[in-house]
Design brief:
CATH superfamily of the largest domain: Regulatory protein AraC
Strand order of the largest sheet: 1-9-3-6-10
CATH topology of the largest domain: Jelly Rolls
Strand content: 5-15%
Number of strands: 10
Radius of gyration: 22 Å
Mean pLDDT: 80
Order of helices and strands: EHEEEEEEEEHEHHHHHHHHHH
DNA sequence: CAGAGGTATTTCCAATGCGT
DNA sequence: ACGCATTGGAAATACCTCTG
């Protein structure tokens, strides 16, 4: 989710495909349902609800099965903006402990009001300029901090991710299709340190381990749960179906579709 | 299914840290 | 100041992924 910092409404696709959240994002659901997966839990937000997606986290948007109709307002808070905001208003950093990637905001009337004011201005002013956008970004941040002062600890945390337990992190996040470099960053290591530590704990290289791990799960889903390759390959972090089939065949001796064909034959 | 372009892995080296 | 260990980064190579 590394867009330019526009607050956007509608369906700009970039937010929904990127799995690494590089800046804090405020999201307000105007219509429909938004569902996310953070590697462990699923988060659901309905129309009228609002929350923050935290930076330096991995998450994936889950498409709704039936209708894909939704509308939202997003405010993407770049680090530079937050720094100058903090400078300007001299706000103290507080401790913020919640660990989740998605943080629900305590209910307040101020936010729906704020959203409505946006609609009014955007509809009557047309394309708003930078000054206007800046003011609105500040306004929302002020509302959020007034509503929950502890958010200061969330927004004004400019540090890098801490060095964390590799095994735990990788087992929770291997389904995300992000580069090794990103994994290294998220576990608080340089690329070199990451690979060294990885070799020590898993006894293989990161790339090989990831493919192996994903294929094992694919194998389970296909053989045991009768799922289709085309339904699962994206969720497991594979980028394209042809490579998935190729890798699958290389590992298990037969392609995913052959498994399904065989099942059909035997069940008949 | 091949070939081009891109990414991961390996290896090596320089910089830094740390105890003696 | 010295040797040794650890770290991050660059370059070369191997491997993977995408496109037609």
């Amino acid at each position: 989710m590394n867009s330019t910092g526009e607050n956007s409404t509608g369906k700009s696709p970039d937010i929904w495909q990127e799995q690494f959240i590089s800046s804090h994002i405020f999201l307000y659901v105007k219509k429909g349902i938004l569902r996310f997966f953070d590697g462990d839990k699923t988060f659901t937000f309905k129309s009228g609800e609002y929350f923050i997606a935290r930076k330096n986290r991995l998450a994936r948007y889950i498409k709704e099965r039936r209708t894909n109709e939704f509308d939202y307002v997003a405010f993407i808070y770049e680090e530079d903006f937050i720094k100058s905001f903090q400078d300007k208003y001299k706000i103290q950093e507080k401790d913020f402990y919640a660990a989740d990637t998605f943080v629900r905001i305590k209910e307040t009337k101020a936010i729906p009001y704020f959203i409505r004011s946006l609609e009014f201005y955007y509809n009557s002013l047309g394309n708003p300029n930078d000054a206007f956008r800046n003011v609105k970004y500040e306004e929302l941040l002020i509302i959020l901090l007034q509503n929950q002062p502890e958010f200061a600890g969330l927004f004004f945390d400019f540090g890098f991710p801490q060095k964390i337990d590799l095994e735990k992190f990788m087992n929770g996040n291997y389904r995300f299709n992000v580069s090794i470099e990103r994994f290294a960053f998220l576990t608080g290591r340089s690329l070199s340190a990451f690979k060294r530590d990885f070799e020590n704990t898993f006894k293989t290289s990161p790339g090989k381990w990831l493919v192996q791990k994903r294929l094992e799960e694919a194998h389970f889903l296909i053989e045991e749960k009768n799922q289709k390759a085309s339904d699962i390959y994206l969720n497991l972090g594979f980028e394209n179906l042809s490579h998935f089939s190729y890798a699958y065949k290389k590992r298990f001796g037969h392609s995913p579709s052959e498994v399904i064909d065989n099942k059909k034959k035997t069940s008949r």
